[in-house]
Design goal:
By secondary structure, the chain is mainly α. The chain has helices at 27-37, 56-66, 85-95, 101-105, 129-141, 148-160, 163-172, 191-202, 204-264, and strands at 17-19, 46-48, 74-76, 113-115. It starts with 16 loop residues before the first strand and ends with a helix. GO terms for molecular function: GTPase activator activity; small GTPase binding.
Amino acid sequence: MDSFEIDDTSVPNKLVILDLNGNKINADGCRQIAKLLRRENATLKELHLGHNQIDDEGISILANALQTNTSLKKMNVYNNEQITMEGMKLLLKLVNDISSIKATLQSNHTLHSMSFPESFESALMFETEIVREIKQIFRMNEYPWNNPNRTGKRKVILTQLDSKKRAKMCGLQGLGDDTKSPYTELGPLLLPEALEIVGKRHGLSEFYESFRVRVADLWTTVNRKKVVQQRRDEISKQTEALAKEKKELDTELELIEQDEMDNMR
């Protein structure tokens, strides 16, 4: 099956399992599958795409569609060896976008099972670090309460508010060192509660680290405020000086014009 097109109006309303293993599906095919995943009342729970020709572009298409999908629980992409680390980063970001607290809360909290290409996971119990991290997030998604809101908050606590874990996740997702601290997103009303959670969940050392980072953020803000105030004052002085000079020039111009009129009489 080199190419196909899905008419989502003719798809069964209660389609639960779709097996497309071994059909030479590529990025174009993924675009058609994405139609099913984006359906308003999607019911698909399992999607089997093993032994195809899916690459990073195909993974990107599927990941984008799954951003808003809340039905799919299992997806298999094994033996799609064109998928590289870039595609794996997209899958990790799908279930836990570490770029911000808001992004983490808006990640996919439903998908909890996946078979990966052999270059990242094999039957010999070999699995790469990124696969281990994805599976850890899957376990959160599969947690008994199965409540997306609670799962999102749990991800924030376990990954965003743990500096070591967050640094690791940033590295795996290709985010640089200049990524903002999650504490910059927390207002003064939420900060005490967040620090209390950090202390209880991750220990005093992490609490002190979080407090230090937050103080540094506040100090940076204070310093920036001072710089802005100084620059504003400088501009005010320059404006006053220019206004004074303009007034003097206006006066001189009036005198020149008066002399010209006197000479014409």
